[in-house]
Amino acid sequence: MGLLPFSEKDSPTNSKTALGSEPNRDIPVSSASDSPTRRSGRRSLITLAILAGILVLAALGCDSDGHQSMLSSTPWTLDGANGPVAREQLLLFNVLLWTMVAVFVLVEGALLYAAIRYRRKPGDPLPPQTHGHTPLEIAWTVVPTILILGLGIWSVFVLFKLEPGEAVAQARELGKEPLRVEAVGHQWWWEFRYEDANPDVEGGELITTANEMRVPVGRPVIMTLKSDDVIHSFWIPKLAGKQDVVPTRANQMWFQADDPGMYYGQCAEFCGTAHAQMKFRVHALSDAEYQVWVDGWGDPVDLSQAENPAAAQSGQLVFLGDGQCVTCHTVGSADQVDEVGEGVQHARMQTFVAYTEWLSKPAEERLEDVRTGNEPPTAFAAPNLTDLGARTTIGAGLVDLNRETLRQWLRNPDDIKPGNRMSELAAIYQTRRDHRADLTEDQLSDLVEYLMAQK
Fold this sequence. Notes:
The protein has 455 residues and is an alpha+beta fold. The protein folds into 2 domains: 66-111 and 134-297, Cupredoxins -  blue copper proteins (Immunoglobulin-like), CATH 2.60.40; 303-452, Cytochrome Bc1 Complex, Chain D, domain 2 (Orthogonal Bundle). Helix content is 38%, strand content 14%. It is built from 11 helices and 12 strands. Strands 3-2-1-5-8 form a 5-stranded mixed β-sheet. Strands 4-10-9-6-7 form a 5-stranded mixed β-sheet. The protein has a two-stranded antiparallel sheet with strand order 11-12. Helix 6 crosses helix 11 (441-452).
């Protein structure tokens, strides 16, 4: 065998740095307090403290008494839900949540116990290496499998109960027909269409309203969900879970309010600038109150009975004339819908799409269109105002409806709802740099009186 290429004085057996040699005393030895193990332990404690703080903050944000909370005030109870759909969903949520909490505590508890109880101490030899514990491995495979299968099968049964057919069955058990309402998502408000607001009476009752839906207590309500622009999500936390609202597709869901009251809803899918302000409300009324609303909806409004008849009549002229409100808003009747689900609002939306496409044309082409009278109309989908005076809010649920807030909304909608389409596109807001309505204070007052008389 050949010799290694180093001299005798550099051989490992003579080198002071060889294994077993005397250590170099010039190298400082770290103290125990700055050892890597201690530093790692401090970092772990800091990480755990941060995670604990995040969990505490998240828990503080959960309020069972909030308007849009589906949580119960105490675990395992269903007092945060109203109606059969919300209760089924909350029960499933509670079982899944607390099952996962129990599994997490057991597994992490066993892990921490083993890590602390059987940790290797300095000087301990390596423990004996074993292949495993067959009965224990079978147990921790079989038990989670049974648990997951059980919860999965139960979840499937709950999904079947959320189908609209269940609403029809429950309604007919009560000797009634379900109420059917179509909700259409727009940027950024909700349109509600009742094809038959009185399902137990022949002849039907067509109603179109916006942002505030009224339903009778104790009657299943089947919702058909559509969108005229982008993806939205329909959510009434205390009555039913979220359901996507997708363009070119009609999704369905149902709910039932067992107790009278007002329930808060929200678009739960980011849909543009004013997404966070796309709210709505559901008024659950007694049968008698609901019938009064249905019977009175759309009746001709006698402006002579308004609080200020002269101002209301002048306001009607503003609505039809200088204000150009009638271009986009309907008053006094429902918005008709044809067999394929297209109607007044859909036509307005198509007009808006055509107008935005026209705006993308070169400036000289648009100028020529204006000169020749080929400029497209600027109508766009807007809420039906037939029952505006009977509503409780304005701006898709942002502020309470009264004369002062309505006046503020008409003067400059951006003050209440930044990003709304009304101030962006309506003609009377385009002539001033501050985007305020090109109306006098008297005209605004008259318009407020006319609109508040719509009930």
